[in-house]
Amino acid sequence: MTSTVSFGVDSPRGPRTVSVAYERTGSGEPLLLLHGIGHHRQAWDPVLPALAPERDVIAVDLPGFGVSPGLPDGVPYDLGSVVPVLGAFCEALGVERPHVAGNSLGGLLALELGREKLVRSVTALSPAGFWTQSERRYAFATLRAMRQGALAMPMPLIEGLSRSAAGRAALTSTIYARPGRRSPEAVVSETVALREAAGFHETLAVGRSVAFTDDVPGLPVTVAWGSRDRLLLRRQGIRAKHTIPGARLVRLPGCGHVPMNDDPALVARVILDTSR
């Protein structure tokens, strides 16, 4: 069941109130799950059954995505603002230094949370920020095309395409290696999430200058990359390993950019191994 929490944050224009939607399930040490740009917390649904028996799992709709409202005026979507927002979110829930796992944008945020020592361990699945400029431009152009496609399609067409494996592939093959495994309901829901993401353009805009260049010492870090990632190419994982020498670099065979759906058991095992 979705819950919402509101809390105060500082901004250059004074205090602001941020609201974040989340789902919490399971028991054990806390584990924060962060999705990618244009997605929503339901991206993690395939791995929740494996994570919840061992972890207090908190799957978040990032501000401006899913059903979380956009950030208030005066709070930008850059890392320097969103990371403290996530820290304040955890504080509002009474959670101190959770483990964190993130995918794409969420992976970059997870690494930043680790760099700031706000978490106990980091699992980053195809994290943003290890691209060349040409790779970034390619990824951003692909994301914009996906967004435009979602906006252009009427709902009856989206619903119709979702009913067949070929249609689900047309809608989601950029991010999944096995799009036919995604349910029709999930494909419709995430396509709607992409078209309605209030934070999409501002997040892309600030992302033009983003590069992760710092080590994350003093805590367990795993960087995992799908062998069939078509959005952020897997060679970026090698750069991540060079940047974070102590990180464990894991290959996810047969997985695309959002691997939680392509191989839930493998992804859950990687997250749990990192957080043990």
Radius of gyration: 17 Å
Beta content: 15-25%
Helical residues, percent: 25-40%
By secondary-structure content and strand pairing, the structural class works out as: alpha/beta
Q: Report the major sheet.
A: 8 strands, mixed
The order of strands across the largest sheet is 1-2-4-3-5-6-7-8
Poorly predicted spans: none
**Based on CA inertia axes, which overall geometry fits?**
globular
Order of helices and strands: EEEHEHEHEHHHHHEHEHH
What gap, in angstroms, lies between the N and C termini? 27 Å
Mean pLDDT: 97
Number of strands: 8
**So how many helices?**
11
Q: What does this molecule look like?
A:
With 276 residues, the protein is an alpha/beta fold. It is built from eleven helices and eight strands. It has helices at residues 48-51, 79-92, 105-115, 133-152, 155-162, 165-172, 184-195, 200-207, 236-243, 259-262, 264-274, and strands at residues 2-9, 16-26, 29-34, 55-61, 99-103, 122-125, 221-226, 248-252. Helix 4 crosses helix 7 and helix 5 (155-162) crosses helix 6. The longest helix has 20 residues, at 133-152. The protein is globular and about 45 Å long. The two termini are 27 Å apart.
Describe this structure in a few short sentences.
By secondary structure, this protein is of the alpha/beta class.
